[in-house]
Structures are given as C-alpha cells and as structure tokens.
Structures
1.
Amino acid sequence: MAFWSKKHASRPEHRFDLSAATYASLENVSLKLGDRTVLDDVSVELQERRVGLIGLNGSGKSSLVRLLNGLRFPDSGTVRIFGAATTEVAPDLPRHVGFVFQNPDHQAIFPTVEEEIAFGLTQIGFDKKDARKGARAFLKLHDCDRLAELPFASLSEGQKQLICILAILVMEPQILVLDEPLTSLDGLASRLILKKLKSVEQRLVMISHDLSTLADFDRVLWLEDGKIRMDSVPGDVLPAYAADLDRRAAKAETGAHAL
Ligand SMILES: Nc1ncnc2c1ncn2[C@@H]1O[C@H](COP(=O)(O)OP(=O)(O)OP(=O)(O)O)[C@@H](O)[C@H]1O
Ligand SMILES: [Mg+2]
C-alpha cells in the first residue's frame, strides 16, 4: 500500500499504463557512445519482479539500465516504460523508475540524512515543511530515525547506501534500478541491504558482479558485447556465466591486455 496519500503525490500518469504486465521493454535498441556500439539491436521485455543483469566490464550493463530512466536514449529502436516511449515521457520517468548508483557519495547531495530524504518528497509535490515532516516519518518507518540529523558524510558505507535507497523509495517509484549497489559494501552490509531490497514492493532491476546476490532473482540477463547472450532463470544463467569466466581465465595470459 502507498505510504503517501494521492493528495500529496499528484502524478501525471496518463501516458503510462501502470497495470501493464510488461513494465519495461527494449525494441531493437542500439546505442553508440563515441565510435563504439555499446548496445547492438537489443530486444527484451521485463515482467518479472526481480531481474538481474550480469556481464563482463564494458559489456553494456550500465548503458542498458540508464536507458530505463532516461539518463540515456537509444540511437535507434524504442525503450518503453509501462508502454510509454522514454523519449516521449522523459521528464516523468524518474517518478516511475528510481535509480541507485554504486557509490552513495555520487548520489547524495544534501548535508543531512533528513534533507536527503525530504528532497525526494519535494520532487513529488510536497512543500518544504511537509517534506521535512514526511522525511522524519519515513525514516522512522524504516527504523532509521536516529540517523535523521546526522551529516550524510558521517555514516557508514552501509548506512549511506541504505539512505540513498530510501531517498529513492520515498518517491514511491514502481521500478527500482540498481547499478552494482553492493559492490563497495562489506559482507554484512551487503547482506542487509540485499535483504532490504528484497522486502520492498518495487520491481528490481539490479546489476551485480557478485553472482550469489542474484541466485534467487526471477530472471537473469547476461550481456556480452552489447548483446544479450543468455536470458533465463538464475539456475541456468549463473552457472553458465561462471563456467565461461573459468574458461576465459584458463585460456588467457595474466598480462594487462587480458583485463
Ligand atoms: N560516455 C562514454 N563515451 C564513450 N564510451 C563510453 C561512455 N560510457 C561508456 N562507454 C563505453 O561503453 C561500453 C559499455 O559501458 P558500460 O558502462 O555500459 O559497461 P558495463 O557493462 O556497465 O561495465 P562495468 O561492469 O565496468 O560497469 C564500455 O566499452 C565503455 O567504455
Ligand atoms: Mg557498469
């Protein structure tokens, strides 16, 4: 159930079909950055609650997820969120697709935790006073009220990432896109953040190099050189990817050119 009443959060939803089973789709999407083809004629429809994205460095994972909330647009093909082409609904995309970066310091922009959360609420129509009150309530709901007045910079890495996730969740997007959100966390923080992510009602699209974090996702896409090499349940994709890594490592030299 929504935490905020609709009177606060008036959303322009006319072009999005929020009841559609397919929440995101790429239709023959290609993307070039500089002279490099980063995504090459990719087509995929996402319906599953939790989708993982894996692949070697440079395979196009971040580029793909950035298409979902309008941080990038394709050179050809169409990206749709709840049926709406991202090129046509760009200003409204962040309300529906929240984006969490690997490094919390790249996401947070306000001095205190409460201000960071309150900002999200101003983005969905709260005035400043209500946003501060709402931020307190939201932090309490997530058992983080004791962090409210602390400087963001003073938090542990795990706390920072949790606050960044809450700063997105407070806007109640339907989709949460996460680009390696656990990479800089220690094993305990990583497990706790993952547990938190699995407890939310949002659809998750998450990039990870730690295959174990995706083991109980509903679906995993393996990207290679800007194409989808494999797309199936984790039980099929993760072992195949791990075996491919082993094969490559066994064949390659250890010099710089292999990395
Ligand atoms: N702004 C840019 N200009 C030119 N090339 C870019 C730009 N951003 C990314 N690339 C290139 O696009 C390719 C795909 O990058 P992308 O960041 O999507 O890969 P990735 O799968 O997320 O990799 P990683 O696991 O390292 O995060 C890489 O070769 C990268 O060097
Ligand atoms: Mg990346």
2.
Amino acid sequence: MRSTLHGLGDLIAYLPYELGFRPTDSLVVVGLDDDRIRVVARLDLGDADDLAQGIHRIGSVFAQAGVREALCCVFVDTDPAPTVVPTRLLDLAGDLLRAHDVDAAHLLVTRSGSWWAHRCGCGHCPRRPAAVPDRDRVDAVVESVLDGIAPHASRAELRASLRECRTELAQVIGDAPVTDRPMPSAAVTAAMWEILHGTRPIHEMPVPVLASLSRAMANRSTRDEVFGWLAPGLPGVGVSGSDSPPGMPGAFDARAVRARLVQWLHCLPDRLRPPVLTLIAGSAWSSGSGALAAVAVEQALQIDPGYRLARLLGHAVELGARPRRCA
Ligand SMILES: [Zn+2]
C-alpha cells in the first residue's frame, strides 16, 4: 500500500484488501508502527477461551516484534447482533494486549456497513454508528483495485482460488521428461525473474522452462535462495541467501509478485505444488497477509504433511504475525 489512510473509517474499508478477504464475525488486531499498518492478525469470534488464548498469542508475538501500538476491531455479522459481547471482548483484548506492553488505544466495532469506537484514543472517532467510507473514496482501496487486487468473499473462497488448476498444462508439466542435470543457477535466476516480474502470463511461458524450474524448487538450496528474495529475514526459518539476485530490485510490489506466483501454482500438478505454495506463504507472511499465508501453508501440508519449510512457516503463521516490515 502506498496511499495514506485518512482516519480509521478508511482503515476499516481497506482491511479486506490487506487481509485478502472480507472478515466476518472476526476480531481483527492491527499492529501499528508510527501510524502505519505493520501487521494484521485475525481471530474467529468463537469460543471465549480460544479467543483469549489467541489474543494472548498475538500480544506475545507483537511484543517480540517490537509492535507497541495496536488497534482492535470486532466485525459482527451474524444475527442476532450481540450487544454486550463485542464490547466485553474488546475490553478483554485491550487488557490482554496491555499485559504484553502493547497499547490498544482504539477499540472499534463494525456492523452492517457502520463502525464506531468503543474506545477512542484520538478524540475524533464516532461513538455511535457511522457509515464506513465508500470504497471508491479510499485511495488505498482504489490503488488496490487498480493493481487488480480484490478481496475474496470469504476464507473458503481464498482457499478455492489457490486450488484452481490449468489441468491440461499441469499434466504436461508433470509428465515432462526429467533430465539428470540440475538447472544451472543462472537459468533459475532468469526463469524466476520472468515468473516474478515478466509481463506475459505464466501459462504462456515455455513448458520446458516451467517444468525445469518447478522441479528445481524440489532442491532445498535452490528453493531457499528464492525464498530469501521473497521473504527476507524470516527468523526461525533458517533461510540464508537473502541478497537480491543481480538485476532484481530489493523492494518490489509484494502483491503483484504474489499474483504471479499464484499463476505459476495454477500451472502445476499437486506433487510440484508444495515449494511454490511455501514461496507464496513466505511472501504473503513477510508482507502482512497472514490469511493467504495460512491457507497456502495448509495446502502445502495437505499435499506433503512432512514438508519442513511449510511446517516451520505454519508455526510462525499460527501466531498471527510477521516479524518485520517489508517495503
Ligand atoms: Zn479515535
């Protein structure tokens, strides 16, 4: 996101674009750094004990990551609308975060296209339901739409979007003859450049290139090198080689890159998918899209339950936070 959000109503309108889907019956905790969104975590409104544990974990991870300011917003959708529970939950969230030295100055409620502040730290937020700003009037939303980014209606839809497959092409790539020689490093770099930053759709890339590159990702050091470009500095994952390869800019539009990675995924049969799903998860997680990261990890582990990098990432993603901001 490059645009500035003007006020918390804008932020609420923008959150689905940051999460990748519209949160429903959720508690969303936004970690802030100098008034910028640094991390977004989401919990289902369900069992009170689970929620308390979830908030506790979020507070712990935020504190470890040096996030000291947060904002909590309850999205209430299901009827009948609970009147007391959201505010009680928000108070609990504020207290649990405070126990980790994370200050939640704003506790907000969103329902039926309106929002209001249960607690306001700035003195300017509405205390009674006010309309969430029209998406067309929020610069950051318009920017996302122009970038071709639309939030999915639900987490289930996000899952389904990753499962899509160009079946015929995936079969051809899966059946492509295997050569004994590993793909040379320069060829991996060139092909990855095309995948990440090219202009032609991935499914129009030459099949031998896609087949070789997709197989090269089964090699741990090759995959880790690419992972390092996409998700630099993930602690606990033990990835080295985070230097950008020659000619690859250090800072790129993470969402545009992820859209290309998802296109690549759609060209692959299941057995070649775990490394690419893990790259998507790493990229998503390091730039704050925890929901996509969780879904990608989940699918990698469904295909290969022992896939180590996915398990490590899954553990980190479960905590609901990323360790650092990537531009
Ligand atoms: Zn306020």
